[in-house]
Prior knowledge:
The protein is mainly beta. The chain has one helix at about 285-295, and strands at about 5-10, 20-30, 35-40, 45-50, 65-70, 75-80, 85, 95-105, 105-110, 115, 120-130, 140-145, 155-160, 175-180, 185-190, 195, 200, 205-210, 220-225, 230, 235-245, 250, 255-260, 265-270. Strands 1, 2, 5, 7, 8, 9 and 10 form a 7-stranded mixed β-sheet that branches. Strands 12, 13, 18, 20, 21, 22 and 23 form a 7-stranded mixed β-sheet that branches. A 4-stranded antiparallel β-sheet has the order 4-3-6-11, with no helix packed on it. Strand 16 and strand 17 form a beta hairpin. The longest helix has 15 residues, at about 285-295.
Amino acid sequence: MAMVTINVGTPSPYPAAQTDVNIYLRVSEDAWQGHAQFAVSIDGQPIGDVFTTTAAKADGASDLLHIVGRWAEGLHSLTVDFLNDAYGGSTTTDRNLYINGGTAGVLEIPKAKDVALLSNGHIDIPFEIQGIGNKFFPGQVGYSVINFGGGPDHLIVSMSQDWAPPEGPDYGSALATIRVDGVVAAADLFAAAQHTLTGGPSPNQNVWDISGNWGDGPHTVSVEFTNDTYNPETGYDRNLYISSVEYNGVKAASSEVALFSNGSVDFQVGTGTPSSEPEKPDWDAIAARVNAYHDATGQWADPGPGWVASQPTVGADQVLI
Length: 321
């Protein structure tokens, strides 16, 4: 199976005006006298036909099912039905199906992690879709975690953008797809942090921490910009900036790259010793500071940790209300 993409279009009753949502599901098996087969449905609607996984759970491998459709924001249900269980009387003669992780849009599906289907039957997995069209606030920063399979390796990608217009069909943040050795690790990662603020590069970034089981390497990490847009009449131009690609605590060489059109750039990683835990900036504090600075000045920028919003001067005969 390796990777299969299914495009279901606009499932009724959702309006055609919605934006495509990418759903990824990682699966594997215990094989015995054949490979595990399964069916998938979302909100009761069948997706594709019967799927077969050939990735061995014992090897830490996964096949990737990629589903593209136009679902509304909110809560949904993903159903996985194991179809051909078999058992020969021992742990080595037993066919099973495993779900190792998944994402819907920019969100992880928590209950699609470490699921074992040891007999025929189905499991209903709730998931949520948010941020359709990726219409995030300008200057939004944050540290986000995507965990596929719970592996010990950490791939950390920091990005920012020039955003598109504040309204209209081209509105939205820059999007990127991340691949490790040609296999999709995460898709539709947004870069909502503005690259240039108050005349210079911004310290604000969207940082994506993607964990997996890739090993020491070497590996090729590909970052693909997928939704470039430019309006010559208004001058609005969406671009993607990659400020850092780090693997297990070691920053890739030449990892500061600007992408001004759709396409991908490759980084070579995997020659360093894995770190115990990547250092995480206090992005909540940074985001709060950026928002407070915008409220005070009208500008999207991070003034630094020493900045304090000024208070109006109160005279002797004045009362501050």
